[in-house]
Amino acid sequence: MSGSSRTDSPKGRDHLLVALQLKLSEIQDPIRSASREDLQEVKLAEARALTPQTAETDAIRFLVGTQSLKYDNQIHIIDFDDENNIINKNVLLHHVGEIWQISASPADKGILATCYNQTSDSKVMTCAAVWRMPKELESGSHESPDDSSSNPQTLELLCHLDNTAHGNMACVVWEPVGDGKKLISLADNNVLLWDLQESSTQAVLSSTAALEGKGQLKFTSGRWSPHHNCTQIATANDIAIRGWDIRSMSQIYCIENAHGQLVRDLDFNPNKQYYLASCGDDCKVKFWDTRNVNEPVKSLEEHSHWVWSVRYNHSHDQLVLTGSSDSRVILSNMVSISSEPFGHLVDDDELSDQEDHHQEEKTKEPLQDSIIATYEEHEDSVYAAEWSSADPWLFASLSYDGRLVINRVPRALKYHILL
Amino acid sequence: MAVSSSGRAGQLPEVRDEAADEEEEAGRKRKAHGMLKLYYGLPANGEEKDPLDPTDVDGAHFNPELFLHKLRKECPLPQLMDCEADMVKQIRALDSDMQTLVYENYNKFISATDTIRKMKNDFKKMEDEMDCLATNMAVITEFSARISNTLQDQHEQITKLSGVHTLLRKLQFLFELPARLNKCIELEAYGQAVRYYGKARSILHQYQHMPSFQGIQNDCQKIMASLSQRLREKFRDGGSSAQALAECVELLLQLDEPAEELCDEFLSHAHSRLEEELAALQKDLELPATSITGPSPPSDILDFIDRGCNGFVSSLCLVIASYQDLFINNPSQETPRSYGIAHMAQEKLVTFVNNLTSHYFSMVERRLQLERGLGDNSLLVRALDRFHRRLQALAKLLPTSDVATAGTEIVVRAAEERVRQYLQALRCFFLDCLTDVRQALAAPRLAGKDSPNLAELLASVSASILNQIKSVLTYVHLFTAKDITFSNKPYFKGEFCSQGVREGLIVGFIKSICQTARQFCETAGDRGGSTPPALLLLLSRLCLDYETATISYILTLTDEQFLVQDRSPVTAVTSLCSEAREAAQKLLNHYVKVQGLIVSQMLRKSVETRDWINTIEPRNVRAVMKRVVEDTTSIDVQVGLLYEEGVRKAHSSDSSKRAFSVYSSSRMQTRYAPSYTPSAPMDTNLLSNIQKLFSERIDIFSPVEFNKVSVLTGIIKISLKTFLECVRLRTFGRHGLQQIQVDCHYLQLYLWRFVSDENLVHFLLDEIVGSAAHRCLDPMPMEQSVIEVICERG
Questions:
Q1: Residues B412-461: pLDDT tens digits?
Q2: Domain of residue B727, residue span
């Protein structure tokens, strides 16, 4: 494995490679690699921000942002070579501050947005900006890692999302489909809709909405619905989830007591337009039909601490990925509320062997909602877990200690869903 | 013999044969004779003589020649002389004998001849007399014939006359019949009248073509019609006695009145009377319904049933009995027709009784439904018993009706309803208990006293529930008491005990306790809810107590009281216990969660609302930390009241003194100065990784054990983990970090004693300080000694 070749090369500040080497050598242990072939691990510095490179649909690529107050923060571009089980990594410097959230443009592989902390002497301000990465890294670089580590490249700033009037940025989300010219950012209690103009070098605030209420209201998270012609977003503040129509910038629904405690994350079902998943500090993952905000459709309580991240699989929405500060990542199979409750209806063409087909039919009973797997590779809180945009069976999770783990959906289940 | 043998000498050979035969025969006879002789002990004739011996003088084959020859040859002379003399003597004797015999026979013959002559004379005389008699008889016969000839005419006339006489008497009776009947009716001797009419009816019917008879018949019919009319009136008249009624019916039946009509009339008459009784009951029943003010019925159930039994049921019994006497068991008529009537009448009676009883039953059921008082059950049971008993009597009278089964069903339903009500009452009681507990928990806080003693509360709640269960069991047990008639019905022996009481009541109640308890975890709201945590704790202990002892005690008690004979499957003690344990576990988990949340909310607010960059140098432990320790202590006290201490890992006595420098020096140092230089990172990561390898993964919201230490550990875990996560979201200045250090040291000093494994606290606090250091812009840790001083100062 090429990981071994990387062991010789840690230079400069790339201490992450050590971890990578450490982990990779672990994986190379024949027994372990035999039993856990679905697993790949990378070790980073403290990090919270993880995103798949959304516009990339061929290569498996994740972007990870580090959090460091003392050193230049970096964005790591993690390439995963599926066939050879090799992880390639490129590092980009992100000088402006520690990265709290990162999101990649759905239209342009090279463009991404980050929320970062800017610290002046006695003030910390969370800002957001849109960046472009160097051209040669856009679609992954297979050049020698020595070069990249010795000479880390810098991101090119396209524009700031000016938030001086609106408060700290909680997150930035791209319009899920389209030309990558629209952004929503959540700043304290404001929803800001931005238009990127002049090849993304200028961000114009096109409309805003503010959440009014007593107390200090702060958005914690938001997602842009891929349905309804991308006119809806959902936001979370405290224990409530709100839906907004971005044309009128008005609230369309509100799940008042969505969770017992703070709502940490949301995600829209990519295939079912009214379905929404949320997670929070009450250790629960809840599934909502936004037409009925009184009662969740389903509620899971599998984690033993706060759930920080919930993600639907982009193609098979019964697969739900959650990451929690109990250091676990859980992959659940929510068949009962998925868009394909009884498995795909596929032609038999794909089945070369008649016997296979036979066996398949026997096991093709309606599945129960179940936990597929609990991944315990992390040793610190997992703040982000994301599906790959290229391979629907692959996902990455990132824990605070900087360990990135790439896992695959168990093969048996994959076949079960496909066949 | 000698003559015959000599006479036949010419045919010797043949004779010889014959003679031989005869000899044989004679020999046989002699032999028999000899044997007889032998038998009688007579001396045998000297030596055995040869029967064929021709020398034997007395023998049949005596041959004088041979005999003489033999004598001459064998005997000497003197003997011959003797023989000769002897022979002569014998001859003489024989001669004299013969003479005597002849003489005697002759005499007899002569006298016989005389007698015959005399007889001849006498018969002649007699013949003459007989002739005379015959002539006389002929004369008499002639006379007699003559007389009868003369008398014959007169005799015929007499016979005719006597016939006419009887006919006339009959006719007279007929003619007089209307008058007689009238008289009978006047005298109210209806029976007599009917008898008369019954005699005449057929004759009148036969001769109705004759005008006079027809007149009589018409008269009679009229009279009889009026009679039957009167009888019917009497029959209809309510006042008449049963005896009189019976008579009426009998007479009417004899008058060929249609039995069906009579039955109907009788029944409708009885119906109206019974309806009155029912109406009275109904009135009684409807009183409470109309008067809203009086929620309880004016008369108790026993009274109601009593009146029903004494009034309605006993009258019904009477009606049935008399009806059966009249129409069904009428012994006087054993004809097929009467059989048909009996059959028809029986059917009518059954429908009649069923109608009325169903009405009655519906009333009883309505009344039973009013019976909601949950106190003493005995009145109801007695009432039901009486009801059932009376119905048994009724059923005995009329076995074909479904009264008995319907009655038993009512009793069964009432019992089931009662059990349901008791279950409801128990549930209410349990909820009331909980409300009381809530009040008890809330009240002292208002009064400012000490917190209520949870152990006492638990004991009182537990005891009162147990008492309530026991008293309910006693009440229910009345249903199966020996002196209650329905208690030996199979339902009450089997299903009632097992399904009704054990499953429905006791198991149902225990399940509902568990369910109610569990509901506190679910509905209490995720934000801590309105349920006081102490109540959760108390309920958890209650459920645990149930699991360990109470359930099996209650079930054993139930099984003993209700000797369950039914083999239907019942809920096992173990499954109930596991349910209770589950509830206890859930409650305790929830308690930990709620308490942990309360503490962690404090910590969270304190971290989130502070500006950690621009804070001043720490001089004190923040108040919130003291509050956390205080709260934890009070929780510790609270839990300690109900749960045992539990086991902790051995810890050093001076744990509180454990130097924070452990991490502040070695581990923290490396963490504070993580360099991106290639030399350092290896150590940093190795160190933190190795440390994590040895520390076990901590499940924050994990199930706790049933002891104090485990509960407190859970709460502290939740609190500290929240603290950690909040710290990681903030950015700290130098003094901010130092404040965290101070706070953590303070927590360190006080929290270790509550948890099972102090390393857990250490680990989490290390993580907090480590994360704070990592999130610090200017990581300058405070001196350990200074921290200690500040903490000691309070």
A1: 888 888 888 888 888 888 888 888 888 877 765 544 445 557 778 888 88
A2: 610-793
For residues B787 and B618, give the distance between their C-alpha atoms in angstroms, rounded to a whole number: 9
Are residue B617 and residue B587 in the same domain, yes or no? no
Alpha-carbon distance B494 to B566, whole Å? 4
Looking at chain A, which residue has its C-alpha nearest residue B733? A122
Indicate whether B721 and B686 sit together in one domain: yes
Nearest CA in chain A to B613: A122
A119 and B777 within 8 Å at the Cβ level: the answer is yes
Nearest CA in chain A to B684: A15
pLDDT tens string B615-649 = 888 888 888 888 888 888 888 888 888 888 777 66
Do residues B343 and B444 both lie within one domain?
A: no
Cβ contact (<8 Å) for B527 and A13? no
d(CA A10, CA B678): 7
Q: Is the ipTM of this complex over 0.85?
A: no
B200 interfacial to chain A (CB closer than 8 Å): no
What total number of domains does chain B contain?
A: 3
Residue with tokens 């003493």: B376
Q: Which of B564, B591, B618 is the last residue of a domain?
A: B591
- pLDDT tens-place string over residues A234-257: 999 888 899 999 888 888 999 888
Assigned domain for B536 exists: yes
Same domain (yes/no): B550, B654: no
Instruction: Please answer yes or no on whether A122 and B614 come within 8 Å at the CB atom.
Output: yes
Residue pLDDT, tens place only, B237-282: 655 666 667 677 777 777 766 767 777 777 777 777 778 878 877 7
Closest chain B residue to A257, measured at CA: B526
Residues B574 and B437 in one domain: yes
Q: Are residues B540 and B469 in the same domain?
A: yes
Dihedral sign for Cα atoms in the order B422, B427, B431, B433: positive
Kindly state whether A257 is in contact with chain B, defined as any CB-CB distance less than 8 angstroms.
Answer: yes
CB-CB: which of B527, B613, B682 is closest to A260? B527
Residues from chain B that touch A283, judged by Cβ atoms under 8 A, are 701
Chain B residue numbers with beta carbons less than 8 Å from the beta carbon of A119 are 613, 731, 777
Last residue of a domain, one of B563, B591, B619: B591
- Residues 143-202 on A with a CB inside 8 Å of B are none
A381/B contact by beta carbon, under 8 A: yes
Instruction: Strand A98-104: give its sheet, edge to edge.
Output: A98-104, A111-119, A124-132, A156-161
Together in a domain, B396 and B279: yes
Given a contact cutoff of 8 angstroms between Cβ atoms, the answer to whether A102 and A49 are in contact is yes
* B window 236-295, beta carbon within 8 A of A: none
d(CA B757, CA B625): 21
Shared domain for B654 and B768, answered yes or no, is: yes
Note the pLDDT of residue B374.
Answer: 60
Residue B681 distance to chain A (closest CA, Å): 6
Q: Which helix (H) or strand (E) holds A118?
A: strand A111-119
Q: What is the pLDDT confidence band of residue B27, given thresholds at 50, 70 and 90? A: low
Strand pairing report for A232-237 and A219-224: antiparallel
Question: In chain A, where are the structural domains located?
Answer: 46-418
pLDDT over 50 (residue A43): no
The answer to whether residue B286 sits within a structural domain is yes
Within-domain flag for B388:
yes
Is residue A29's pLDDT more than 90? no
CATH top class, domain A46-418: mainly beta
Q: Would you call A12 and B678 a contact, using CB atoms and an 8 Å cutoff?
A: yes
In the prediction, which pLDDT does B766 show?
Answer: 87
Nearest-Cα residue of chain B relative to residue A44: B685
Structural domain contains residue B176: no
Nearest to A13 among B676, B688, B702 (CB): B676
Half-sphere exposure of A361 (CA within 13 A, CB side): 7
* CB within 8 Å of chain A, chain B residues 562-621: 597, 613-614
Sheet of A40-43, strand order:
A40-43, A403-408, A394-399, A382-387
